[in-house]
Amino acid sequence: MHLDDLVLVSVDDHVVEPPDVFHNQLTPDELERAPRVIRLPNGADVWEFEGVQIPNIGLNAVAGRPRAEYGIDPTSFEEMRRGCYDVHARIDDMNANGVLGSLCFPSFPQFCGQLFSRAQDKAFGHRLLQAYNDWHIDEWCGAYPGRFLPLALPPIWDVDLMVDEVGRVAAQGCHAVSFSENPAKLGFPSLHHPHWDPFWQICSDLGTVVCMHIGSSSQLVVTADDAPFDVMATLQPLNIVQAAADLVWSPVLRRFPHLRIALSEGGIGWIPYFLDKVDNVYRKQHEWTGQDYGDRTPSEVFLEQILVCFIDDPPAS
């Protein structure tokens, strides 16, 4: 294998955390209170924290399986491809796939650390979040320097702690942080609220990219309780379209012109329609809605500050 053979950089991979994720980061007393893997009577492995079970595996870990065996139910580590949770096996898989670099979103803590935000003891939740970030940077990404793009989780319940954490992990070489596509759905202020300004500012100052993954609002677009999974899978990218609309019409991009935001797993086929639509709305409505892009258009600002990615998206070609 030669580095020149590796041509892909994936900015939307996932890690299924191994059971020992906290073992080198916490004291024995802290480990007693920390999330842990338990095995259910049916043989499935799930995480448990503060009496709540978090089945995190399912479709996060179907690599290598026949598609007829896909499912959303949790499974055991033994039934998963080892590269899902073992960094050494992951590198072997990346080499086989021609992947030079990989940015890995979390699984059991959820995309922007929602699990830690729900901790009964917020100080301990903060301790767990920092321990998770240190594991991700030092043990997962640090095992193969240059092959991973570190991604930190934010203490989303306290914007001052968020500022401190972005600075702390930046000093360790981590310049990407996961954030919610719609924090209002998590019970926090929306993307339109100045509450988040210190967070946007520190990310802008340090060149830290804010990564928003579909489902990071802990909700997906569901049309009906009895709709089949296929409906949700088809509509999943709409979460990112909604986030893009919030960002365009919020003050964020204009107030922080050096800020970069990455929209993950939302595809790109919707972008031509979206850019035409936002410019059309601006042209027709801004005089009474009060939106002001000066001598620029919303689409120009979007293209300059928003990063996107795709898996398969033939319509975008």
Explain what this protein looks like in three dimensions:
By secondary structure, the protein is α/β, with parallel strands linked by helices. It has 2 domains: 1-126, no CATH class; 180-317, TIM Barrel. The protein is built from 11 helices and 9 strands. It has helices at residues 28-33, 87-97, 114-117, 122-141, 159-170, 197-206, 229-235, 238-249, 252-255, 271-289, 298-305; strands at residues 8-14, 36-39, 45-49, 52-54, 99-105, 176-179, 209-213, 261-264, 306-308. The chain has a 4-stranded parallel sheet. A 3-stranded antiparallel sheet has the order 2-3-4, with no helix packed on it. Strands 1-5 form a two-stranded parallel ribbon. Helix 5 packs parallel to helix 6. The longest helix is centred in the middle third of the chain and has 20 residues, at 122-141. The protein is globular.
Question: Topology of this protein?
Answer:
Blueprint: E1 8-14, H1 28-33, E2 36-39, E3 45-49, E4 52-54, H2 87-97, E5 99-105, H3 114-117, H4 122-141, H5 159-170, E6 176-179, H6 197-206, E7 209-213, H7 229-235, H8 238-249, H9 252-255, E8 261-264, H10 271-289, H11 298-305, E9 306-308
Parallel strand pairs: 1-5, 6-7, 7-8, 8-9
Antiparallel strand pairs: 2-3, 3-4
Helix pairs in contact: 5-6
